[in-house]
Amino acid sequence: LAGGTANTYYATLIGAFDAALRDANYQSILADTMADGDYGRDRESRLVSALLEQRVAAIVVTYSLAPANLKLITDWGIPLLFVDCVPPRRYAHRPAVTADNEQASTMVGDHFAAHGYTKWAFVGYPKRWSSRVPRERAFHETARRHGATVDVIETGNDPGTPYPAMAAYLASHG
């Protein structure tokens, strides 16, 4: 289950999973819960039900599922892998492949500071994405530590919205 396959990161990730699964004589099923650009819990629930009806061998998720759907998947005993998202506390024992978002943002901020930049911008996809929280928090904390300011530029998690959002920001800041 992916949240926003228009994001090229997910397309690359999905391609790698698909190739590995085919090599192991498995087939993959891709389900995008943000097919129309916005997450829909009803769509997610229908997709989870369809996957369970197919008796899938495992489910890989790239975002935080609704609690009821997480419970349903685990009640059915389906192995669950979180990729690029932190499992909710109750599911922290489940396998996850994530980046250290806080460390990455701290490193970026330290790099900006090393170059003497004091006015920074955080380009963030929707706040509902769990991986955004630690990225933004660490970026702001690092900015404070270095005496820098941060402007937040909101975008979608897709290839179309970051460019106009950044262009508008730059136009308004001369």
Describe this structure in words.
With 174 residues, the chain is α/β, with parallel strands linked by helices. 45% of the residues lie in helices and 12% in strands. The protein has helices at residues 8-23, 41-53, 67-75, 101-114, 132-146, 162-172, and strands at residues 59-61, 80-83, 96-97, 119-124, 149-154. It has a three-stranded parallel beta sheet, with no helix packed on it. The longest helix has 16 residues, at 8-23. It is elongated and about 55 Å long. The mean pLDDT is 87.
* Oligomeric grouping of the chains: single chain
Number of helices: 6
State the helicity in percent bands. Answer: 40-55%
Q: Report low-confidence residues grouped into runs of 5 or more.
A: none
Shape: elongated
Terminus-to-terminus distance: 41 Å
The H-and-E topology, N to C, reads as HHEHEEHEHEH
Number of strands: 5
Structural class: alpha/beta
Sketch the major β-sheet. Answer: 3 strands, parallel
* Strand content range: 5-15%
Q: Please give the radius of gyration in angstroms.
A: 18 Å
The largest sheet has its strands arranged as 1-2-3
What would the average pLDDT be, to the nearest integer? 87
